[in-house]
Amino acid sequence: MRIAVPNKGRLHEPTLSLLERAGLHVEETADRQLYADTVDEDVTVLFARAADIPEYVRDGAADLGVTGLDQAAESGGVVAAASEAADGDLVDLLDLGYGSCRLVLAAPEDGGVSAVEDLAEKTVATEFPNVTRDYLDRVGVDADVVTVTGATELTPHVDMADAIVDITSTGTTLKVNRLAVIDDVLDSSVRLFARPDVAGDPKVEQVLTAFESVLAADGRRYLMMNAPKKRLDAVKDVIPGLGGPTVMDVEADENGNGMVAVHAVVDERDVFETISELRSVGATGILVTEIERLVE
Ligand SMILES: Nc1ncnc2c1ncn2[C@@H]1O[C@H](COP(=O)(O)OP(=O)(O)OP(=O)(O)O)[C@@H](O)[C@H]1O
Ligand SMILES: O=P(O)(O)OC[C@H]1O[C@H](OP(=O)(O)OP(=O)(O)O)[C@H](O)[C@@H]1O
Ligand SMILES: [Mg+2]
User: How far apart (Å, rounded) are the C-alpha atoms in residues 37 and 47?
Assistant: First the structure.
């Protein structure tokens, strides 16, 4: 099975790190190599431009692809489940949570365009012509779309366009270029995409579960401690655990009091408060560790 992942740019590193954490270690390759093996002999990684990945998957060059929803939407249809797929659609299997950005319609701050209706008979420049045309159809505005391959923010200032549809995340680029957001076109983040015909394959399910387990572990910590057996209920009350803690009998303390070891998964935001509460109900030897993966 082949997974297409971004070969460079901002999505490259986080995607490799996700594969690594998911247990799909990518074998060392020289930079720019197109393919790489993983520790799983059935899984090959294919490096491609973020914008080309949806096409690789649609065409069958790859079975799975990791890229932005914006890129997938630009290249064709995207559906949430294989059962809803029409010919050529991609299935959006999982939101991987990084690469979050918005495609927005923006125009010069002090210009003549302050609502999408003002764009009738005018021109919109974008790297996303298909998404932009779909959007204009949806809102019922007849505007020209010109395709550019970068520096879109410049086009309204050189009379190439009256507005743009472009990616924004912090808003800095729009601000620097004195452009104001007029409307949201698409919310995007990086997703795991599959072709509908492979979406239910056991190997695909295995990759999906591995990715999900990484996301589930994010923001969670593993707590281990010892506690007097008679304080167990109090300890349990303190731990906002995932399906209740794991409790094991351990050796009694020096006074012969029964002791237990308690393990639990907790939200990292709760760790600080939880530790002092655990100490106050008699827990000792409290250990906090990171979790690599969590299969629920
Ligand atoms: N500013 C941003 N913040 C968050 N995500 C972004 C941002 N810009 C782009 N992305 C996401 O990353 C994807 C890839 O962007 P792009 O193709 O521009 O590559 P890049 O990482 O910028 O590298 P390069 O432009 O140098 O090829 C976009 O389709 C989008 O999903
Ligand atoms: O809202 P902001 O945080 O300013 O981000 C938005 C900018 O980020 C992306 O550009 P990128 O940095 O990828 O440069 P590129 O044009 O070379 O792709 C995008 O094309 C916008 O220009
Ligand atoms: Mg970019």
Answer: 11
Residues 117 and 178 placed together within one structural domain of the fold: yes
Of the candidates 222, 206, 209, 207, the residue with the CA atom closest to the CA atom of residue 295: 209
Does a structural domain hold residue 295? Answer: no
Specify the CATH number for the domain of residue 48: 3.40.190.10
CA of 8 to the centre of ligand 2 (A): 14
**Which ipTM was obtained for this model?**
0.95
**Ligand 1 in reach of 171 Cβ (< 6 A):** no
Q: Give yes or no for residue 150 CB within 6 A of ligand 2.
A: yes
| DSSP 8-state assignment for residue 233 | H
State the closest ligand 2 atom to the C-alpha of 171, by its place in the atom list counted from 1: 1
Could you tell me the residue range of the domain that residue 23 belongs to? 2-99+189-216
Residue 98 Cα to ligand 2 middle (Å): 15
Which ligand 1 atom is the nearest neighbour of the CA of 71? 29
For the chain, how many structural domains are there in total?
A: 3
pLDDT tens by residue, 131-179: 999 999 999 999 999 999 999 999 999 999 999 999 999 999 999 999 9
